[in-house]
Every structure is written in C-alpha cells, then in structure tokens.
Design goal:
Elements lengths: L5 H4 L4 H27 L1 H8 L4 H26 L3 H31 L8 H29 L3 H27 L2
Length: 182
Amino acid sequence: MSDSSLIDELPGELLMWVLIISELLVFGAGLIAFMGVRLTDPTGFAEAQSHLHRTGAALNTAVLVTSGYLAAMALHWRQTERGKAARFSLIGAALLGVVFLIIKGIEYADKAAQGISFETHPFFLFYYLLTGFHAAHVLAGVGVLLLVAWHDHPRNIEAGAQFWHMVDLVWIMLFPVIYLLG
C-alpha cells in the first residue's frame, strides 16, 4: 500500500490548485447568479444578448484554446531539453492572450458606442462583471506566462500553465452561457 495521498499525486503546486478551485467557485457562483436572474426576464436577456459579438467571442475561444495548447507544449519542450521552443511557446501563448484582450476591448468599445453600460439591463451587469473579471485574469495570465518564459524552470512552467488552463476553462464556461444560451 502506498503512503502517498491524493494531494501528493496532483500535478503542479498545491497552492495553485487552491487558487484555481477558489477562482472556479467565484466564477461558478457568478454564472449561477446570472442564470437565476435570467429566469426572471428571459425575453429581456435574449434581447440584450443579441447585442453581443458571437463571432468575436467564438474567435476568442479559438485564441484561448490555442494559447492553452502552446502553454502545455512549453512544459513538454522544456522537459525534453528544448528550452528555446518552450520560451517561444510561452511567449506565443502570452501574445494570444493579448489578442484575446484586443478582441474583447473592441467588443467593449462597441458596447460603449451603443450607449450600453452595466446599468442598461441586468444582463449587461453580469456580462461586464463576468467578462471583465475574466479579462483581468487573462491580463494576469499574460504576465505569468511572460515571467515563466523568463524563468523557464519546469516547475515554473507547470504552475504558469495551470493558471492559464484555469483562464481557458473559465472562458469555455462563460462563452456558451453568456453568448449562446438562448
């Protein structure tokens, strides 16, 4: 019988898992609240949702999934003594994070031009809170990926990729609920 516990078998850093779980709980609570309020005004939510850029959001999904792949490959390449490839992969993942933020910024600018704010409808309050909080995580993740590219020890890459995959996962939850759910 093994003396190792389930916690010992987790990949990466335990504190990163604590952060990831706490962030997923926060976003999950936000999505549950969104869905609960949506039940009180499905027609209003559907009309408000029609002002969103579904194509841009779908493109952002592809951007983040690709960046997650690059972050995952960085660890593989670093472990196989291909440090230069690992660094380029991390920088590429970070640049794709910037692309995500640019696309999201274009969408926010369009909403502002239409006079849509968090006060326009409860849908937009949740939209700005959830996607804005996520964008803050993308910005932090870009910084983490660049820092890890600079200090590219495998443990650092694994922790940075853990965080970045959480950012990906949150977007994969936000995208269908906010942009597609009719």
